[in-house]
Amino acid sequence: MTLIYALVAIGALALVFGLILGYAAIKYRVESNPIVEQLDAVLPQTQCGQCGYPGCRPYAEAIANGDEVNKCPPGGEATVKKLADLMGVEAKPLAGGEEAEPVKKVAYIREDECIGCTKCIQACPVDAIVGATRQMHTVIADECTGCDLCVEPCPVDCIDMIPVAETKQSWKWQINAIPVKQLD
Amino acid sequence: METLLEQIESGKLWQFPGGIHPPEQKFVSNQIGIGNLPLPEYLVLPLKQHIGANGQLLVNKGEHVLKGQVLTRPGTNWSLPIHAPTSGTIADIKPMPSAHPSAMPELSIILTPDGEETWCPLTSRESIEGLDSKALIDILHHAGIAGMGGAGFPTYVKADSAKQIEYLVVNGVECEPYITADDMLMREHAKEIISGIEVMMSILSPQYTLVGIEDNKPQAIEAMRTAANHNDKILIRAIPTKYPSGGEKQLIKVLTSKEVPSGGIPADVGVLVQNVGTLYAVSEAVYKGKPLIERVVTVTGNTIHTPQNVWALLGSEVKHLLHSQGFTPVEDQRVIMGGPMMGFTLPTVRIPVIKTTNCILAPDNQELAVAGQEQACIRCSACADACPQTLLPQQLQWFAKGQEYEKLEEYNLFDCIECGACSYVCPSEIPLVQYYRVAKAEIREQKLEKVKAERAKERFEARKARLEREQEDRQNRHKRPARTAPAKDKVKVSEALERVKSKRPEQSAVQAAIERAKAKKADDDTSTLEPDNSAVALERAKRKEQARKYKEEKAQSSDDSAPKDAVAAAIARAKAKKAAKAAQETNVPEQKDSKKAAVAAAIARAKAKKAGQSEVSDAEAAASSDKDPRKAAVASAIARAKAKKIAQGNDQADETAVQDSDAADPRKAAVAAAIARAKAKKAAKAEEEAQPHSDKPAEQTDAEPEDPRKAAVAAAIARAKAKKAAKTAEEAQSHSGEPVEQTDAEPEDPRKAAVAAAIARAKAKKAAKTAEEAQSHSDEPAEQADAEPADPRKAAVAAAIARAKAKKAAKAAEEAQSHSDEPAEQADVEPEDPRKAAVAAAIARAKAKKAAKAAEEAQSHSDEPAEQADVEPEDPRKAAVADAIARAKAKKAAKEAEQQTVLSGNTKEANTLTDSETAQLSPENKRKAAIKAAVERAKAKKQAQEQEGNDLS
User: Fold this and answer.
1) What pTM value is reported for the model?
2) Which residues does the UniProt record annotate as the domain 4Fe-4S (chain A) (predicted)?
3) Which of B51, B102, B419 to mutate to test the interface with A (most CBs of A within 10 A)?
């Protein structure tokens, strides 16, 4: 008899908690797949397509679906590491053997050579090139992500990728202290 | 319990945590008063000497400027102007090394003094009464005053605080070793500093002004007390000497017990801090109208002969200051801008003094030892004890080394004031501050990049959205015309309904048709595309009506014998053509509407065929619709092609057809005859008996074609084939000679004859080809190669070559020799429009190829693609031509396939000839041509079979 009581009691409890859990699962459901957002936030947003996807978000989605994390040369090793951490996988060296620390570059149009074909404008993923047909084009350096995509379409090869000049703001201290020693 | 205010009034001081007591070394430079420097040879004035943006240049190279003249105009965004520290000429404006640890070049004005020291007009004032705070702030702004304690924050921005300021804190602490600039300034210019304080007080109206001075500067304290005696709102406080009590947050803590929240500014707690040097500059600017053009700089260190404070014009090079004070550099001499705790070693001494430069320290190597080797952290926690911000320097160090930037932020790295106390106390000589600085720069950069990435993402998405929108717009633009269509469609539907109704009472059918025609006319009027074709539409409607009637009739008479039907149809068609030609002659001016007419004609014809029995009405309709001679030609071509089919349908049908058509219309008859002949020849080749028939048609050809162009096209095609055929087989030769003979007999009309001959020849060739095919496909490429050329001229050339060959062939045939010249001549005479013909031929061929390709994909369905390919072309005429040609070939091929066995004997010779031809072609073309030919053949056979079946049924 005690066995039956126990079974009934346990069963009743199980039922009650099951109902509570089921309700909670519906009521406090987490919307969407935040991992894609997190991955996208880590990516450098150059939209350069070097990963083989048409932009950073598509790559983020691909990673979430199990693609490799080491396909982002503009992000460098740091990005690979972050992506690996997020996905809980082993960080790998960058695919393609690019240097670990990518040099930041901006496109520069040699304006007297530009013929105004607008091909680079169409190629730019962030609309950082201004110009019109038969008018000289120029790059808005602040908006340029250095993705390289405008270099290829230029029929007169007048676009250079120039490393971003270091400014006082971007300058970094070297580890060299000015020691102060107490004299006797 | 005393309130905070009472505590402050009573002079209570508080303590900040940590702090150190480094050797002060102030005595070195505070023994003598502030000296003056000789004018330097030139001044280097960086446009940006403070935090914020630089102003806009107002002067040009070579311009002469007066002392105090403004050189840049401030914009927004915390920008300040700079002024000429002395009168002189602007020698250059170019990037020069800046007062920054990196000495990175920065755009600077280079001024060569003229030694006159001529001031620009200054607006001095006795008091600030009548000036509101806005006017005062404006004065400060345009005097270019920035915080002179270190950071160089624009003073006007600070003074323009939106928050209520309870306490104005004046920083005269100067806690860093060696530096005595503020000390000396207070000693000598306490009055001006106090008046500067009073200006700030009038702007900010704080409850109290607290002046903090370290108790190691008794003279300065005394001087300030004396100067501030008249104002009981200014409280001079001597605070205990401890580094870094001169730090803004530390000083606030000491004087008011308030703590600035992490990441906040003093104004958040109702406090504003100003340096005494800044206040002196404020006083000068407000009362004397002098902009900020010079400042007190301590020049000190063991390598300086007379360490002293000097009035240095902004833009004087450090080198100038050093040498004026007697500088004896030692080995590995370092020159430090700022104090030993927070300053930085200059990479070069050719760096200008700027608004924030308070000290130039040139120590020898005993005074400040070069940093030793960094050793391992022993976790002594001395740094944590020393930290005035109660941070955990040791932890920060680990994170900085490990580049764990999030951790660093968690540990409030950005609250570090980089005072260097931790580095100073570290027994392992770890340059902690340097690690923090590097980490801070890194984090800042990452944040910037994040912002940039965010913007790039936004722009990328905006672009994507834009592109999508544009594409949609484009699609909509294309759709727009279609959108207007539904109205028409509706009309059509209603018409259809009407028609259905009208079908039952047949009398009303015509009426309905008229109505429809009118509706269409109305449509046309609205669209204004085709101005006036209502008449045509009407006729079309009538025709349709008749066609419908005929269908019904046909359904009843379907049990009639097939051959008879076919013959009748042929006759009807022939008449239609005739009528078309007549129309052509009369209606030439009406060609504007040629396309419509063509379409109508095509439809009419299609129906006409079906309505083989209601010929008369058909013919009329065709006559009315065929206004275009070319169309008519196309139509006739099609008709001919069909006639041939019918002829094939039953062996003897051709004869009867010819005779029938003769009676009806000689021209038509001629056409039919020509076709018949062609077939006859084939048949003849297959069996020798066929010959007799070929003569008759030839005679009839006299009456034939009034349309020279068509004839030319047909002839050209035919000729090309004829030549080949001639070459092929012995039997073929003998037959080809006969046609030639026939052409001789005929020619009352050379053109007609030529056409007939051409057709005949064409068939001969085909026959020959089939024979070739049976053995090997090698000759086909050659043929197609001939057919291929897209260029009309080429085509012409090809034709010419072909003709030449034809002649040769003719010669080969013994009998044919004498006659062969004539056709050739005729051929020359024929083409009044050779180019057109060539084009037509080319197009036809192109289509044939297409069909062939389609066939490759689905050989079993090969008929349909071929048909579709024919249907496709924009120009119905061409399509018709192509169609006709294709069909003609198909039939022949079919027949030949049957006769292959008979002809196979001739193939040897054919091969030898074709080899020579193919040799001229590139291997690629050969292969392609071969494939196409094979496909075509396959189709042709099928088609032929089907058509035969159709005709019979």
Assistant:
1) 0.56
2) 31-89
3) B102
